Amino acid sequence: MFNTRSDLPLERDGQGRYLPWLIAFMVYLAILALAGVMALNKVTARWDKGVGQTLTVQVALGENQTEAEALDAALGVLDETPGIAQTHRLEREQVAKLLEPWLGRFAEDMEDLPLPLMIDVQLASKIKPDLDRLKQRLDAAVPGALVDDHRLWLDRLIDLMQAVELLAGTVLILIGLACGGTVVFTTRTGLAIHREAIEVLHLIGAQDSYIARQFAGRALALGLKGGLLGLGLALPTLTLIGYLANTQEQGLLPTFTPGLYHWAAILALPVAAGLIAMMTARFTVTGTLGRMP
Amino acid sequence: MKTGGNGSVVRFENVGLRYGLGPEVLQDVNVSLASGSFHFLVGPSGAGKSSLLKLMYLALKPSRGLITLFGRDVATTPRPELPALRRQVGVVFQEFRLLRHLSAFDNVALPLRVSGARESRIKKHVSELLAWVGLQNHMNARPSTLSGGQQQRVAIARAVIARPRLLLADEPTGNVDDRMAMRLLHLFEQLNRLGTTVIIATHNMTLVDRLGHPVLRLDDSRLIEEAAPESRNNSDSGESDVARMDEYGLNLQQTSETAA
Q1: What are the extents of the domains in chain B?
Q2: Which of B53, B85, B114, B151 to mutate to test the interface with A (most CBs of A within 10 A)?
């Protein structure tokens, strides 16, 4: 696809000095954006998976039921429901602990304070229980029981993540365009510098593609070089961010260890930079030569 | 891409050329050059000799009129097919236009390379042709290290390496002494005898008179065809030149056949 030999002194026009660095910075930013999205994606998936697999059932104390009766009735309904792996009743102290931010320490000590009865439900991973039916049956057994599947909270979070992903995607596209624009202008400069030689090639019967190929091959080489430089800059940065994230409180920030798929995506960026540079140079040269008679 | 068989290599019909909105530098040019002909193109400086040649090697489009090259209407030939036409036209440019960063060898090799010839073939033919023009010891020299006359021979070698059917030369004897000029012109005559149509733009009337070929005269932006002037001493210097070429152990016929 590209010539090892060139009729044009392309290596001497100074493009080789700054184009790779411009592309390197763009690839650097692109990799950071991509890595950020992938980390967020992973954390969203984890929340989705972790939280999505649990339900919280809150049993209200009815008029004519004791605490134990209400609890037994609720547990009875849950046990009969397919798709539920495990139920766990939260102790009074645990519930008090959950309320601590609002009521303070004393909630635990006040025997009379009517704390809600909470049941932590683990769902089986395969079967999704029919939540509407479960709600109806629980309400029948224990009037006023609430089933919270955390969906509302999670859905909003996922919406936010999708917005961030969209933003990062836009950033990637903008970087791609900037990369193309840079190559367009450097190629035009190159065409101006080598105008005389190009005209001679043209007049002795070179096809436009013959000349374009030389520019494209060169742009591919410079683009790849810039891409690898950018990758070389991005890797220490990612390692540093990963290290800083790990020293923070666990669980607050996602620990991101890139998998094979992630590595492939990151490594694809320098290659993409090279290809964008090559195609852009090719189209620029063909377009310019098209104006020659 | 063969000609229609009518033998006309270049044909101009009512061709006019103007640059931008300026006056026509060429007006109503009507000419038809037969295959295998040899013409001088003369006229005062600025008469449009270079412009006329540029129209022939497809560096310019006429403002009006019809140009056919090897029987093909240039204006209606699709752009991707123009390079194939250009490859059949060898041009010795006025200022040579050698590529400065390439050696003499690579400059001469260019027409073969752009047409995708194999490197082994390129090496053989270019070496032979450079030896033939007496530059076998300067193959790897950059144009800037060569004398004017040597550069000129590189330019001529580049123009003829692909065995063009039409050879155009713009003041090819401009900066060499008369002896070298005669040598170069005899070289063109050699090629002409092998079937190449030759047009040489020059203002050196002494040479025109000595060689005795038909003349195309540009005057007041119009082209007039004139018969050949009486040739005075065509034979003696010509033969010594051919003899000199044979010193390189190569004969033209052979070169032309292998390069075709």
Answers
A1: 8-259
A2: B114
